[in-house]
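Minutes, project huddle
Topic: does the predicted pose make sense with FE2/S2 (inorganic) cluster bound?
PN asked that the exact inputs be recorded in the minutes so nobody has to dig through chat later. Recorded below.
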Amino acid sequence: MGTKTCETNRANGAAAPRIEIMKAGPYAVYGAPELHLQTIETDEAGVARDFRPGRSFATRPEPVHLCRCGASKNKPYCDGSHGKADWDPALTAPHARRPEEVTSYEGPGVTLLDDEPYCVLARFCDAGEGIWQAVGHTDDPAVRKEVLREAALCPGGRLKAIDKVEGRDPVGQSTELGLIEDPRMRASGGIRVLGAIPVIDPEGIAYEVRDRAVLCRCGQSHNKPCCDGTHLRVHWQDGLAEPVGELAEV
Ligand code: FES
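Predicted holo structure (tokens), as shared on screen:
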């Protein structure tokens, strides 16, 4: 399964992808980005190690409407259930990052930026002693490489690692959407947005474009449109993937 870049979409005659949030309704997705299941793979300790791509879903004809309330019987698409579902569609997240909420951790090989409101509890940062402690040991090339890898996998963009040795942010530029599945926690997560896809509120105001984000699709986040990890606490499942493993507490 490949990834589509903005250039590829333009070559196919589609506009660059964008997501428009409908008032008290679904996400309207334009530009036909790839959309597929992305399952969090964990090791024996339950630490998230990677995303495994899975089944694809159509994003044509555009726009496709993706469920935002969590109640559709035709997930990932909207079926109009938002009109009767028990959810609060209010969008309460700020439209731009708040610099005062970003904490910087300086290590010998990496600067780690931590913007906690964007945490979706995906747990790529939990390996070993934890990424915040590991930053202090990034004079070791193997530790540096692992810190960069874990931060790049942080789907909500809470963590961003700057490589002091090669001077770059290792996050790729692919443009696609993912439906997060977290079988270890018997839950489904939000919509993983990769590659600086604009997200626009019902008033036409764009959110700050970030290289990655996760949008809530369970309808229960307290920081909409962003996912805040509440899907784990309520063990929300979209029915698109088989849950496996022991029920873990959050
Ligand atoms: S999908 Fe709703 S809080 Fe994560």
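Observations noted during the meeting:
- Helices lie at 6-11, 131-134, 141-153, 230-233.
- The pocket of FE2/S2 (inorganic) cluster is lined by residues 120, 189-190, 216-218, 220-221, 227-231 (CB under 6 Å).
No decisions taken; revisit at the next huddle.
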